[in-house]
Amino acid sequence: DEIAIARILNLLDAYKVTLHVTHFSESRHDEDAFKLHQLEEKLRQDHKSERIRYEVVDSRVLLSAMKEYIDSNDIDLLALTTRKLSGLQRIFTRSTAIDVLYQTNKPLLVFHEK
Questions:
Q1: For labeling, which of 12, 17, 49, 88 is most exposed (least CB within 10 Å)?
Q2: Any idea where the domains of the chain sit in the sequence?
Q3: CA torsion, ordered 86, 64, 100, 13, to nearest 10 deg
Q4: DSSP-based three-state secondary structure for 65
Q5: Residue 56 main-chain phi, psi, to 5 deg
Q6: Per-residue pLDDT reduced to its tens digit, 53-106
Q7: 47 falls in which pLDDT band (50, 70, 90)?
Q8: Which pLDDT does position 73 carry in this prediction?
Q9: Among 63, 65, 73, which Cα is nearest to 98's?
Q10: Which residues pair with 81 in a beta bridge?
């Protein structure tokens, strides 16, 4: 989500940090990589930071892939964008943000999709 990433960049502007913009996917989709590349191009125009890494990570098990990525890339702070769900979806779907919160000891920022 471009708006959420722009907010994060504004928050972190005073610090010398690297931002990892990472999309976790159950299977490699060219569409995911294409969308991430479009987002990268847009953000590079608006934010001239060289401290942003863009990556698509493939994994059938989202939480273990995220935990492995966090550990292997020395991530200190997590930020997730949540998707709007219908009432029925909320009943049967557990929040990824909540699962991540329970699986890691890192601070977590949650941005709501607009």
A1: 88
A2: 2-12+22-112
A3: -110
A4: helix
A5: -105, 125
A6: 888 888 877 788 888 888 999 988 888 776 665 555 554 555 666 677 677 888
A7: confident
A8: 92
A9: 63
A10: 111
